[in-house]
Amino acid sequence: MENLLDNLKNLLQKDERLVSEGELLKNKIVELALSLDKDLIELLLSDKQMKEVFFTEVGKATIFNKEKFIKFVSNKQFLPDSYTAFKNKIGLIDEKDEFVSERKDVVLSWPYKDCILEGGMTKEDQKRDEIFWNETLAPDEISRLLDPKTFTNAKRIDKDGEHKIEKFKTDENGNIKDNLIIKGNNLLALHSLKKRFAGKVKLIYIDPPYNTNNQRNSFTYNNSFKHSTWLTFMKNRLEVTKELLREDGVLQIAIDENEQSRLGVLLDEIFSDYEKHCITIVHNPRGVQGNNFSYTNEFVYFLFKKGLKVIHKIKRDNPLEEEFKDHGSESLRTDAKNCFYPILVKNNKIIGFGEVPNESFHPSGKIVREKNGIVEVWPIDVGGVERKWVFAKQTVEEIRDKLFVKTKSDGTIDIFRIKDEKIPRTVWIGERYDASTHGSKIVNKIIDGKTVSFPKSLFAVYDCIYSVTKNDKDAVILDFFAGSGTTAHATLDLNKEDGGRRQFILIEQLDEHVDVSIERIKQEIGKNTEDFVYMELAKWNENFVEKIQKAKTKEELKKLWETMKEKAFLSYKVDIKTVDENAKDFEDLSIENQKRFLLECLDKNHLYVN
């Protein structure tokens, strides 16, 4: 397919009014578009591609989108050699993409905000020169890039090993019920899942690259606009997650201080109709040494539709003892008369409840009556104030197994209740969240010889999942930065505890991470009856990318070029005849530059099979 920009230039050259000395008059093009010039519109309509991009069908009418057309023509003057509508500098712009110095009304923006960033890597330390496909200047490229891809190499894996898969498990409505592990680019995989999973995912939990300011940063792209590139990378993926979530779905994103503030602003823009909450998890109590502070925490954003009650109580690390007797100015006997009664205790165990006599009580807070070793305990302060129990008798009977008795040294008796669940607070702290003890050590014990950088605490992810899916035992849970497979591990553990049928979908493109996830989950399902389906995005040009990168000699690269001419999808900019005519120049290049040249020849839009 011919490039949209070149196609438009060639088409406009046919109108003599728009050309001077062989050059297009862009101001004239804009002027005619603004005036809805009849001849210009007819010229554009004569080309199928122009009609698809710049016109909209409404009933039997065809409407010219002059704003889109003018923006297309005008923007190219700012970046003549780039697929982006923005100037290569960070700043505040208005809705017409003009910088603050030119306008007064502003919005927060960044370079590449109007771009699609594919973000393909197969190794953690691999750098990649990215193509930024602009939504306005390259709509045809983007539509092909994000078309659903073909899956291949599918197999069912259970405790007995790998098996040929003939079909997915489905419910009566045809919904896929299998656990899935997908290897490949997560942006492309997400778009490929939309047809079957749009509006069906209860929870999306992700732990994306943190974009840290050190050499261990896993977000390693060759780009000087580091934060802008990261924001573009995240924006593309978050936009499709919104399509996958159910109406009562929840998005959870783990992040640290490096991009937390910028991510928060991005979430406000994409999920403007959602509540946004940010919790702190103390995941490294030992701290990470910095110049001024030692960081012990990271964050998790929770997002869900405004007004929904979707977050449940989570389990406590150590059950909390809370006094069963209400205190405070609003907890008097007169506030709830049916909550004032004696609890009968024998040998420090609750055996029942007594009736309320008419006489007054004076030995406040102490044993009132004792008979045959049975004592009555009342909700009365030492100061003599008659208060109330938290619950009425009929409710207390239901939670009696969570109540216990404590006799103080002065002879008074207090009744406590054990709270083993709590409404999630905004700071999660405790040994269970230690990412070293319950993250790295778990992975290293399971997987010998392979590594995954900074795996999450199993219990931190478990609590995130539990807080959303406690009462939804059929929930679909998606993690498209799967890493070491902690999300699947936590899901399997929760299912084992409550008999749930929650379904996990993992997407991961880094080779070693995929290997770790598969082995980890195989060991977990070996303890139960679950299984999962593994599959990959079918590669096309990606096969050539890998072969080019692995080549050791120039002779290998020369043979690859011959194969590429026959089987690869080459960029429209490549003239095979010219390349072959200059074979000597190619041979004189270093092996690294030969690799760079061959990689440039490939159309990155066709790394996988549509």
Please provide a brief summary of the model:
With 610 residues, this protein is α+β, with helices and mostly antiparallel strands. The protein contains 19 helices and 28 strands.
Give a written overview of the molecule.
This protein is elongated. Helix content is 32%, strand content 22%. An eleven-stranded mixed sheet has the order 10-9-28-11-27-26-12-13-17-14-25, with helices on both faces. It has 610 residues and is of the alpha+beta class. Helix 2 packs antiparallel against helix 5, helix 7 packs parallel to helix 8 and helix 13 runs parallel beside helix 14.
**Which band does the percent of strand residues land in?**
15-25%
Mean pLDDT: 84
- Find the structural class using helix and strand composition: alpha+beta
Can you tell me the residue ranges where pLDDT is under 50 for at least 5 consecutive residues? 77-83, 362-366
Count of runs of 4 or more consecutive helical residues:
19
* Apparent shape: elongated
The proportion of residues forming helix, as a percent range, comes to 25-40%
Strand order of the largest sheet: 10-9-28-11-27-26-12-13-17-14-25
Radius of gyration: 32 Å
Largest sheet: 11 strands, mixed
Give the termini separation: 15 Å
Number of strands: 28
